[in-house]
Amino acid sequence: MKINEGMSAIVTGGASGLGRATAEALAATGIRVAIFDISEEAGEAIAKNIGGVFCNVNILDEASVEAGFAKARAAHGQERILVHCAVVTGGGKTLSWDKANNCYKRTPTEQIARSADGIFTATYRIASLAALGMANADPISEDGERGCLIFTSSAASQDGQVGQVAYGGGKGAVNAMVLPMARDLMDAGIRVNAILPGIFATPPMLKVKEYNEAVFDNLGKSVPFPRRLGHPEEFASIVLELVRNSYFNGQLIRIDGGIRMPPK
């Protein structure tokens, strides 16, 4: 899909981390970006800096998401690019040892369901609403393309560690959604892909560095090459290629420096 100045994009989770880098990279090409996030102060500042618009959106709430799309489209017109980076997750080990009671306990189902809602269901919610708008817009290429959807999955979806049943399972469900959704939307000319990042220098990881620099350094050393955490800008560069290259469709793309997660 040819990137044209003034084309519209929506980036969820655009107030920080991978989403912020993506919003900045898209805006640098001349694309008008709307940021969906719940971090209002940071989101407003970043949107202002890139000449975009901020929408205070809770991805768990249908009405909030619909209002975000309405605000973004009123400002920039129909988006042709949707990059979904926002996530709400929870979880824990399936069973963990309760020292006080000298027995195993399980992670409550409700805690796992929160991740299912914040990862899988939220991805469908955002993607289907974006696709609905794109499908009812005119094609923008001679192939009949109307837009593209890019999801953020995780390397944990394929080799999750201890305690990642909820997160890895949710991201695995996102992976499983990509190809059937691409097939659902093929007649509308909408492509669907997902990026599976490994360990990136996002705010949660940088907090690890604040509390324990040795642990942070070891995370970087666990990557085969380059032996460091990924830069958010490297994630964003994959987004740009997925937007530009219309032959990418129904794909899961790992960007992880060759890491394969050990059990712990």
Automatic annotation (TrEMBL):
One Pfam entry for this protein is adh_short_C2
Say if the entry is tagged with keyword Oxidoreductase: yes
Keywords of the record: Oxidoreductase
* Entries under Gene3D superfamilies matching the protein: NAD(P)-binding Rossmann-like Domain (3.40.50.720)
Record keywords: Iron included? no
PANTHER family, from UniProt? 17-BETA-HYDROXYSTEROID DEHYDROGENASE 14-RELATED (PTHR43658:SF8), SHORT-CHAIN DEHYDROGENASE/REDUCTASE (PTHR43658)
Name of the molecule in the record: SDR family oxidoreductase
Q: Which organism is it from?
A: Novosphingobium pokkalii
